[in-house]
Automatic annotation (TrEMBL):
PROSITE patterns: ZF_BED (PS50808). This is BED-type domain-containing protein. The lineage of its organism: Eukaryota, Metazoa, Spiralia, Lophotrochozoa, Mollusca. It comes from Biomphalaria pfeifferi (Bloodfluke planorb). Residues 91-115 are annotated as: Disordered. Gene3D superfamilies: AhpD-like.
Amino acid sequence: MVKGTYKRSLFWTVFTKTAPNRAKCNFCGKECSYIGGTTSNLARHLRSAHPDIKLSPPQYRESEATTLIITAQTSSDGSCIATIEPFEVTTKSEPPDDCEDATLLNGSQNQSPEGVKKKRSACWSIFRKLDENRVLCRHCGHTLSAPKGATSNLNRHLKSKHQNLYSSLQIDDIKKKKAVKFKQSFSRGQSKQRLKTSASHLLVPQEAEMPEDIKKFIHETREKEGFVPNAYHALSHRPNEMRAFLAYYDTVMEDRVGGHLTRCDKEMIFIAVSSFNKCKYFIISHSGLLRLHSHNKLLADQIAANWESADIDERQRSILGFALKVTKCEALMENDFNDLANHGLDSEDAWDIGSIVSICSLSNRMAYLTNMTPNEEFYSLGRS
């Protein structure tokens, strides 16, 4: 074994050995191969991936020299194979534990003796510690002072000599701080939160933050039905509009004195119109309600698929035909009203049909706006 003193290539200020014949780029993390200490692959990587990096010769001191270990072996065919491995004599390149800068570095944190967490500076991904008060810039090889791990000199060096790299670190720092801030606010809990998977794209207030009458309505619904439809949570984003919506919905869907539309008729209209508008939430929810009121497990699915081929009578077919013309904004003729009259439905019933179409279309659009997803309970409602 032969030992000799050798000044390392500047590329080793940018790359770190990870395994025999493998080195990792300190900037992008990509591993490159090198054989026998040659740095051709490392140079090619810098030229192609980091063209802005210009290596300048560092001012090495004698104490910073590197010792090479050269091992010679004879192969089976008699040829000589020499393996060259660097033997580091400098101190281990680790950032100081008492780093004063409050910038994030890969989320790592140190615990000070007083129990207060301090975050490592991103500078330490570019500088290597030589001793207690000196560091080496991996980018250009300059030696800087960093007493007790202070990073002021390091930041000044980056800002003056490596502006692009400094800007990149600043951007990364801002992103990481935003991520930490979001995580902290999420863990503390907010008065409003996204419930995209269950209720709405938009912000939905927690029940404790709802107005008393809305909170009471939600509580009574849960006690009565065993669950709260996601539509109620979504609409609670605007309490006044929710009150108006519920009042209109209840008025339209309840039996009107002198009216001839049954609750099943109204649920069929809701399903047929929602199917035309391709609104999954109200197709699923009102299909469950139709199964409950009609005691028919098949009819709702038939209407949702194609009301014109569903197993319904001529009266119901006339109602749905009229409702779909209103939905499509098609001109209504006298024959349309006469068709309803032939099945015992007067002009007031036609108004009821139009009102149901209107509240249904409004509901469909709000479901699209908020991305409502049907409660699982609706799928099984009325099937047992």
